[in-house]
Specification:
mainly alpha, about 0% strand, elongated
Length: about 90
């Protein structure tokens, strides 16, 4: 990572942390500002993910890191389960 990229990540982390603090612990006083800060925090974290991992899509990251299954894998599992059920039904007949 280049120095300029590292500095940008540091700046974004600082902005994210400030927004998260205000979203969680800021004065509410009858206003809905905490929601605005929450949205800002999410946007900053997305920017950080984009810089570090190349995408801000949590589903894609989960699949890349083998934490989530892709639609194709889920479909294959479902098909296997259906085949097992059909075999059991044939045996019962």
């Amino acid at each position: 990572m280049k120095k300029s990229e590292a500095l940008k990540v540091y700046k974004l982390l600082k902005e994210f942390t400030r927004a998260e603090i205000m979203a969680r612990h800021g004065e509410f006083g009858g206003s809905m500002e905490f929601g605005d800060y929450f949205v800002i925090a999410i946007e900053k974290m997305d920017e950080i993910r984009k810089l570090l991992y190349g995408t801000d899509n949590l589903v894609k990251l989960g699949q890349k890191w083998k934490m989530l299954k892709s639609n194709e894998e889920l479909k294959n599992e479902k098909t296997k389960k259906l085949r097992k059920i059909k075999k059991k039904r044939k045996k019962l007949r």
